[in-house]
Description:
2 copies of one chain form a homodimer. By secondary structure, chain A is of the alpha+beta class. Chain A folds into 2 domains: 292 residues, 2-Layer Sandwich (BirA Bifunctional Protein, domain 2), CATH 3.30.930.10; 92 residues, 3-Layer(aba) Sandwich (Rossmann fold). Chain A is built from 14 helices and 19 strands. In chain A, the strands form 4 sheets. A 9-stranded mixed β-sheet of chain A has the order 1-5-6-12-11-10-7-9-8. The first copy, chain A, has a 5-stranded mixed β-sheet with strand order 15-14-16-17-18, sandwiched between helices. In chain A, helix 1 runs antiparallel to helix 4, helix 1 packs antiparallel against helix 11 and helix 5 runs antiparallel to helix 10. Chain A is elongated and about 90 Å long. The relative contact order of chain A is 0.13. At the A-B interface, helix 1, strand 1, strand 3, strand 4 and helix 3 of A face helix 1, strand 1, strand 3, strand 4 and helix 3 of B.
Amino acid sequence: MARPTPLSGFPEWLPEQRIVEQTVVDRLRQTxxxxxxxxxxxxxxxxxxxxxxxxxxxKEVYVLRRLHAEQDDADAGLGLxxxxxxxxxxxxxxxxxxxxxxxxxxxxxxxxxxxxxxxGRYREFLQADIDxxxxxxxxxxxxxxxxxxxxxxxxxxxxxxxxxxxxxRNLIEGFYRGIGVADIPGVMRVVDKLDKLSPETIRDxxxxxxxxxxxxxxxxxxxxxxxxxxTSFADAVTxxxxxxxxxxxxxxELVRVIEGTAPLRSGRFSVVADLRIARGLxxxxxxxxxxxxxxxxxxxSVCSGGRYDSxxxxxxxxxxxxxxxxxxxxxLAPLFSRGVIRASRSxxxxxxxAVADEESRPASDAIARALRARGIPVEVSPSAAKFGKQxxxxxxxxxxxxxxxxxxxxxxxxxxxxxxxxxxxxxIWQPPTADLRPHLVVEGD
Amino acid sequence: MARPTPLSGFPEWLPEQRIVEQTVVDRLRQTxxxxxxxxxxxxxxxxxxxxxxxxxxxKEVYVLRRLHAEQDDADAGLGLxxxxxxxxxxxxxxxxxxxxxxxxxxxxxxxxxxxxxxxGRYREFLQADIDxxxxxxxxxxxxxxxxxxxxxxxxxxxxxxxxxxxxxRNLIEGFYRGIGVADIPGVMRVVDKLDKLSPETIRDxxxxxxxxxxxxxxxxxxxxxxxxxxTSFADAVTxxxxxxxxxxxxxxELVRVIEGTAPLRSGRFSVVADLRIARGLxxxxxxxxxxxxxxxxxxxSVCSGGRYDSxxxxxxxxxxxxxxxxxxxxxLAPLFSRGVIRASRSxxxxxxxAVADEESRPASDAIARALRARGIPVEVSPSAAKFGKQxxxxxxxxxxxxxxxxxxxxxxxxxxxxxxxxxxxxxIWQPPTADLRPHLVVEGD
Lengths: 445, 445
């Protein structure tokens, strides 16, 4: 078999990159569970008619077929899920009778899209979602909570600075209604282009595409320009002089999200009320979230979501919810390709126990067992080569310690970074906490 | 949308079952990493020509197609992987230049097969594999190690009793050669049926299908009947009076595996030399492993593997290896359907902080923050309903503790199982270790 070539759009990590991904996923999971979110995994395949309910994305779906399928196969008409929201909606409808509501779940799984591969767009990628689903109505405070949970997860991760931009659809719709806009979705679609077009062009488009002119267009642009890391944004909105009950509701809600996430801000993570953010998708009805990573603007949002009044409905019961989805692959892939982040070693191993000769391998195994029994990841040298070669085995993998058993039954451990070697007892020796497991190393830290 | 029906062959767990699966996977990972195995994940899709190299399994493969694929799509001709060994072989060839050998890796991922669904056979299921791969030659001691690693993982899991049956292809082939068998694979295929057919029938088949008669057939059956939890099996083989160098090598190797796993045996886990085990697959060349779960004989083996001299080859370099694969879904699904194992609760949450009224929610949030900061999974009650209803919220999920903030700033915690309520300070209170996280509950324990 010739050396295989990579498959475009299907990124695959080397062991040291996988340790970075595992560390990120572990941190997410730990935070989600600390807030009481339960894990689920859904099957990779969903019926095509479910996947294609939103016409716009149909060409991105991977269809499944058994190589020797029979005509009336039960699994005919299946496709791979392209996100974790459609499967969640189906899971809640299918298993609703066995779930307790409000249902707080997290889900960390691969998803597949047949998109043209490029940086930030993959055909297979890992997503980490949290959602809270309730029956008939959902308390507003969960819109604060999901932002708090993601903020807390990010606060513990050494990624480049992340900036979560929050807005509220009640605020936007109330404001637009208050200034007399007739085509609210049309105005949102135009304002969504503020990232790419100048305010002057947006003003023209408001006129030509959304039928908003003059003073109203100025107000739309003034509103969209409001952005603040504290609740001062509310004063700026009030100063525009527009009055509407839905606007007041949305303003109060957005204040609560900004206040609720304030304690979690740091040099690495900020939350900002940004009234330009609308999220194109029709189904959002309250708070909306997007997240940018400093230095990676072209990636777009790496963590997005919002409140929706109807995740799913079976006719008699409606399930509202709120959720945020973090793109793990989308975030890590460009950090790997630019060398921004790496693991301190390529294996879990903290100690390699040297082997003097094959006859004494059982003695080295016993030392390894004693260390491992106390939670220290350890390997025994694969061969009784010269000690220099055994040290190189550790060094090439970034393993910090090599253990030597002496003929007299005593032993010693060498920190191969400093060269320091000290007598040690495998039943009591502990490595420095920072060396016990691989940790993340960030360029420039 | 009507209530969806389950998809046969694609098992999906409720949150409390998922906690069982997570606990099992965490234990596997913890053990694999304690022995220095590094995690990799491979993409779900492989080129069809790689997946179909072994003709026998071709009808089980799921083929991928983009819904609106163009003629010359780069991802045409892809299928979902049906195991984790074919992807490992491709990964080693593709990334070999960036890997350090011997390469010890673990891989815990879903795989897909278009088989007719039944108990023990699924279309999507989770596998946990460990393998050690080296270049050109692989030290024998890794054949002992992989059995030790899986044994240690099982020893920490409260599953029904597991019995690992080990044999050695050198021992089998040496013995067969020593008694003059010409068609060694043919005899192995017949002996493999000893599970289902009587020794008399096997004796007939040896004659009709493998051209072995009389004394030789008796020796084949006597050899296959040897089984022991200690190294006494070696005496039983020697007593058969056959001499062959490959037999001697295999016997010595099998003794080392049995000795090496002896310390890990318990009432729940045993390792036995069982000379009937051959593993049908041609590519095994040394130790072979199978594992049965007590009370679930019809499942067949839940954890199998062996040594192979050529996992992959690019023409100039050959990669030998040894590996074992544990079927996570295959093992857990029947335990769930028979109610043998469950989690102590359906959510990670250890404490629900009650909310007296919506105005005091921030005070409850602060208590939750203090508890969470010390690693205690905690939720704040979703509503300020009557306390009885808030206690039921916890009770329905199996959450053991409910926390009450009193108006005077003090607070107390109630164990809702015993009803005992005691004053408590959120900055110092600790739950009993057994209650901190959900644990596994096994029927009859």
